[in-house]
Amino acid sequence: MKDYSFKDKFKYWLDKQMAKGTASIMILLALSVLFVLIFVSILALLFKLRDSIFPAFWDSLANTINTDMPSSEDGSVGYIVLNTLTALVGLLFTSILIGVVSSAIEEKLSSLRKGDSVVLEKNHTVILGYNIGEHGLLNQLILATDKNRKRVIVICTDIEKPDLEEDLNNNVEIPKNIEVICRNGDITNTNDLRCCSIERSELVIVNALNDNRRIKAILAVLCLKKEYPECKARIVACVTDDKHLLPQNKMGKQNIIMLKTDDVMAKIIAHTSTEPGLSIAFKELLNFEHNEFYFEKEYQLMGKTFFEATRCLNKASIVGIQRDGKTILNPDRNMVIEINDDVILFEEHKGAYEVVEEDNKKIDERELKEIKQEMKGDVFIFGSNVLLDTILEELPDDVKNITVAPYEDIDIQKLNRKHKKRKISLFKGDVEKKLNKIAKDSEHIIILADRNMDKEDADINNILLLLKLMNLKEINNYVYNLTVELNLENTYNVAMRHNKIDYIVSSHIASLLLAQISENPDMVYILDELLSTKGNELFSKSVEMFNLKTDRDYAYSTLKQITLSYGYVLLGFSNNNEISLNPDSSTRVQFNENDRLFVLGKK
Q: How many folded domains does the chain comprise?
């Protein structure tokens, strides 16, 4: 075994002491100076420059502190030499001390800028993960917070605190009743998460960039919850893949709610691609800015049927009933609302509704004609990604012919075997050269994002393709719907807006979903049904389907009765390209043949 020299051992020991930080360095510095002072004092005694140790030590200490160089008249040559030595040591000591203290102050200021201190709050909301330019989640939480309620939101991310604070200050309007605290750290590291006081929080929203980090962050939070059994914080997260969902029993025990964003994205794209404007209605349902779903107990509606409740509600639409913990959307019109039921209302804010007398004219249902189903036509899909299979499954049944121009090779035979009710064709040839023919022959066009590319690059490619299609549409008066998938919210913010284009932005949809299920866990049951082919769905239906005439006007209260008589709950309408959701019951509207109704119901 190698025997190390004293020099090596000393250097190793010194390195360990230096690594301990500022305090250790200052102790070493003080001990070094003390050793020099004692050595100089002993020399002064040996050469009889002083009579005792204390005066010798005091003179050396004074010269070290003052760094006062002796003159030729201060004493003998030996005394001058020793004092010069202590003055030089003092100069060296002062310089090192200033450097160490300056470095320590800079380190402390840097630490304070990063936000390393523990958050001393209770019942706060913690957001784990944040992206510069993506403000949807925070904006939704702000909108969902009552103005009279004080709320603290802690954001933990690997972005430097000054950069994040600058981004928030420039782009998010934070009201006085809400305090946003930024902390820098790794959201998958339990030690970094301790500064967020998760054990004292009420809600933890996992907002990481990918599923791997989301799962790691959830596991890190669960480790902290295990240390603090009294912690009851609810954990909310979205994942893109089924395999990243935790077992249901694990989620139930740990108070975790998880949604699959890819499923939601695919279903929204499938539903909106053949029904223009539906994406706006979806966003209205999911955000907190205008109308949303509320669970309320209204005793004035007790004993009434669902149809009667529809007729006597103003400034709100009753969409369902919650009974014994079960959510029933669009129930049988004759179902009676019982004393223990909560009604599910679509309204601008909680308590915005009015219960009025049923004085509006009741429609004569004998005059209602058979509902007219719309023919959806064919669909062309640019690109292919993990959403494609679900989109093909969720498209309306009367969509028979689908053409796909994939980004990479796909097994078209396998898709046809799986989706037997449709004919799925693979586009052959150069898309750029045949773009005009595609635009001419298409009725519904979907542009999917390339998941193999950088998100921003994929978004730019989709925007460029969209511009070309819009140009062809305007020049040649082509008629088709456009649905575009984008990855990033900030790309959508600079994109060309048009009421004939349905933008589906994954990061924005994820933010809306996280905010909704964070504020109201019961929304999970509503979203599960709305975004499924089973049960009730959200539709954009033509006015012709409900046999509405274009040569007369209708009161909104009458429209609610007509649609409910056909089995649909009315949420709003599009008139002359202007969308109105949940207007006053007395509002009157005259439709044209291109107008549509937004309804909730079964196919």
A: 3
